[in-house]
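As a next step, we paired sequence with structure tokens, yielding the entry below.
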Amino acid sequence: MTSTIGRLPGRSMPLAPTDWAEAGFPVMDTVPETHGIHVEERLTDGTYVLLAELPGVDAEDIEIIITGGVLSLRAQRSVVTAEKQFVYGHYTPLPTGAKGDEAMAEYQHGVLTITMPVPETGPGTRVAPVRDL
């Protein structure tokens, strides 16, 4: 690149987009790698249920944040022999009207279960049927 900005003293030469693959994104070096969490969700009888598989994670290393109609789930697990830390994360929008302030969470045998009440759909709410063609 031979632009004027690239040639000014004290300015580093901007990388071409193809160079990012080799150089890496600088901001990514400071952010721990986040792995996805396998989750299953269901809504039955006015209750939203989220099941998350978190094998090998201690209950005190699980963080659940519910704000603005979004459930954020974060967990971390350390491997002592490899001195490595794994961070897991999942974000999911909650059903309309979900009562996040009444959410309950239980963790057993590597499976986290989060439940919260969701009022029945009110007037003006319509569930669209799906036709099999």
User: Anything to note?
Assistant: The first strand starts at residue 34 and ends at 36.
